[in-house]
Amino acid sequence: MTSVVISTTMADVEEVEVVVAHSERATLRVGDVFLKIDADQTRIDVEVEAMAMVPIPTPKVLWRKPPVLALAALPGTALGHLGEPSTASPAAWAAAGAAVRMVHDAPLPPWHGKSLDEIASRLDGECEWLLANDVLPADMVTRNRRMAETALRPWTPVFTHGDLQVDHVFVDGDEVTGVVDWSEASCGDALFDLAILTLGHEEHLGDVIAGAGTDVDRDLIHAWWSLRCLTNIRWLAEHGYGSPDEFPEVAVLKSRR
Prior knowledge:
The chain has 257 residues and is of the alpha+beta class. The protein has a single domain (74-255), classed as Alpha-Beta Complex (Aminoglycoside 3'-phosphotransferase, Chain: A, domain 2), CATH 3.90.1200.10. It has 8 helices and 11 strands. It has helices at residues 41-53, 90-104, 116-132, 138-149, 190-198, 205-212, 218-238, 248-255, and strands spanning 4-7, 15-21, 25-30, 33-38, 61-65, 68-72, 77-78, 158-160, 169-172, 175-179, 186-188. The strands form 3 sheets. A 6-stranded antiparallel beta sheet has the order 1-2-3-4-6-5. A 3-stranded antiparallel beta sheet has the order 7-9-10, with helices on one face.
């Protein structure tokens, strides 16, 4: 969703930036402070606890008064944005891969992630919705669903960010300055994090893998790309992110062969 700027009469603040706003949550930026407002306090609980556990930089918690969590802004800029070319260096992408590996090597959080059955059930439901509403061509859904299903195999759980979009990783030059938005952190598949980070940025997959320093089955990364896109389109459409034809996720689905 496009950010907008709203005037404010607060004495020491010139403007409030709406970073994200939909029916579930909103994030506002006021100077160097981010205010996260979430209807589900469980997500905020997870975010605060996860940031305290991981061995990489995260935003400093300034204060919390439900339903609001105040976080300090991270230095640097986002590694990139979905649907746009990244201007970050290959070394910065490799540094992101190294940071992700550090998270995956950390002790597991005490809460569980989604089970294989839950993920498979959601994939089924979302594909049915896409077809029933003629959102995407049937052959595109079928092809990507077949790819996505290969990701649904047993894995060794690790500490995962759970929503490691490229916008959530901040860098300064070739160094990672921090990672934001930990509300989906859980035990999960390491390849899911790597897939979400490189979604729409396939040209940097090699850099991320090199930084992570581990053997990776790229076919499984591709499978997670398809699964992520298929299961996100309805949510984006229903939360005001525009027409599915314009979603970067649909462009990714079109590119999978």
